Amino acid sequence: MGNYIRFDWAMKRLLRNKADHVVLEGFLSVIFKRQIKITKILESEGNQDFEEQKFNRVDFLAEDEQGELMLFEIQNSHELDYFHRMAYGASKVISDYLGKGEPYRNLKKVYSINIVYFTLGQGKGYAYHGTVNFVNMSDDTDVLQLTDGQKKAFQVETVSQIFPEYYLFRVNNFDQLATSSIEEWISFLKTGEIPDTYTAQGLPEAREILRVDNLNDEDRKAYNRYVETLRFNLSVMDSSRIEGRMEGMEQGRAEGIAEGKAQGAQSEKLETAKRMKSEGLDIHLIAKITQLPIDEIEKL
User: Fold this and answer.
1) What is the DSSP string of the chain?
2) For the segment 60-113, what is each residue's pLDDT rounded down to a tens digit?
3) Among the four 16, 47, 131, 215, which has the fewest Cβ within 10 Å?
């Protein structure tokens, strides 16, 4: 176990405290490239007490000074339909926080921030940003814009600012020297270490707040249990994937051998039929002996 607490566990047990918001605010400010101030932590599944069976997932919902909502999802194990869950999570936050009878213009802006420790999709990078735009189907250079009246009423400049935005960090895909603020954060998320040279907003505070030796006895025991459970379950899943690949290889090998034998037998039949035909034997007799279709024998 490293010198610093894993970020997912910290969000469960530590970063909900107002005094420690500075770490999360630093991370958000680096992502959005503007200063973020968290005003409150809202209820979500991730705010409930930790259960060991939920080792692989953390969710966390915060609201900033502008009333915008930030939904964090941290996923440790592979999920084939994770993209679908991203869409569902953002949609659920929208529906949960638009009061009944409220006009749609009161809809809160939602940011879905996803930190995954597995290969999700195909791509060369480790950090991705997704927005919603409406593009002319006949002219892809024409993106639908808001009217001046809508801009004034909604206090936004583009259509995409109304819809949820998605940030996706594929932590395990980061394998380079950290030379920017976001790279320093991703490096910390991957390695759990914060070198003295890292100065990205929030990390100097994290260097003090997230030290393992700062935990009280109860939290330290809970954290150790979390780390060991995480390691064990990830090891089980890795073993299952390896066994699955080996079984698939064995099955493929057996099927390949059987298919090879069948092809060999078929080839022998064809060769025998060809010799019989060259000797002038009756086609129907050849078919009876070789069990080959008459049309195949005629082609020889």
Assistant:
1) --SB--HHHHHHHTTTSGGGHHHHHHHHHHHHTS---EEEEEP-GGGSPP-GGGTTEEEEEEEETTS-EEEEEEE-S--TTHHHHHHHHHHHHHHHTS-TT--GGGPPPEEEEEEESS--SS-S-SEEEE----EETTEEEEE----HHHHHHHT-SSGGGTS-EEEEEEGGG--S---SHHHHHHHHHHH----TT---TTHHHHHHHTBGGGS-HHHHHHHHHHHHHHHHHHHHHHHHHHHHHHHHHHHHHHHHHHHHHHHHHHHHHHHHHHHHHHTT--HHHHHHHH---HHHHHH-
2) 889 999 899 999 888 877 778 899 999 999 999 998 888 777 888 888 999 999
3) 131
